[in-house]
Amino acid sequence: MKKITRIFAAGLIMTIFFSGCTLFKTPEARLPKKLGVRIFNITPERAAMKVEGIYYNPNSFGFTFKSGDLDLMLDTFYLGHVHLDTIIRVPAHALFTIPVVLQPDFNKLGQTGINLNDSVCISFKGTMKGSVGWFSRTIEIKYEGRHYLDLQMN
C-alpha cells in the first residue's frame, strides 16, 4: 500500500510540475531603470560586458536554476548569444540574480549611432532550465524594456 501511495504522490508532483504555465509561473525580470553594465578586458585584445539580471520567483515553491540560453539586443543591435551554466538555488517568492557575461563586437556597436547616454531598449529571448527535486523543465523567457545604462569601466 505504501508503494502505491508513493507512486501516486510522485505522479501528482510530476503532473503539477509539468502541466501548463498556470501552476509554474515564469520568473519575472525586475531590471532596474538604471542598469549597471561593467566593461572589462578578458584579454588585452578582447573586451566583455557583465550585467546582473535580477528576477523574481512568483511561485510558492523554490526551484534550482540549472542553465539558460539567451539572445540579447540593444535597440536594433544584436549583442550576442549567451549560455548560462550557473546553478542557483531560488527560494519561493524571492528575488535572485543571474550574472550575464557576453563579448559583443564593440566596434560595430560604436558604429550604430545608439546614444548610450539616453535610455535604450534592452530585449532578450531564450530558454531557462529549472528543476524541483528530480523534475526538470525548460521554459521560454523573454523581456523588453527601456533602461539607462550605468557604464563602469574596469
Provide the descriptors you would attach to this structure in a database record.
elongated; Late embryogenesis abundant protein; single chain; mainly beta; 154 residues; 2 helices; Immunoglobulin-like; nine-stranded mixed β-sheet; 56% strand
Write up this protein.
This is Late embryogenesis abundant protein. The structure is a single chain. This protein has one domain: Immunoglobulin-like (Sandwich), CATH 2.60.40. It is 15% helix and 56% strand. The chain has helices at 2-18, 106-111, and strands at residues 28-29, 34-43, 46-56, 63-74, 77-84, 88-90, 95-102, 120-132, 135-153. Strands 1, 2, 3, 4, 5, 6, 7, 8 and 9 form a nine-stranded mixed beta sheet that branches. The mean pLDDT is 87.
Number of domains: 1
What proportion of the residues form beta strands (DSSP E)?
over 45%
> What is the count of DSSP helices, taking H or I runs of 4+ residues?
2
- Main CATH class: Mainly Beta
What separation lies between the terminal Cα atoms?
63 Å
Shape: elongated
Q: What is the makeup of the main sheet?
A: 9 strands, mixed
User: Radius of gyration, Cα only, in angstroms?
Assistant: 19 Å
- Class derived from helix and strand content: mainly beta
List the helices and strands in order: HEEEEEEEHEE
**CATH topology annotation:** Immunoglobulin-like
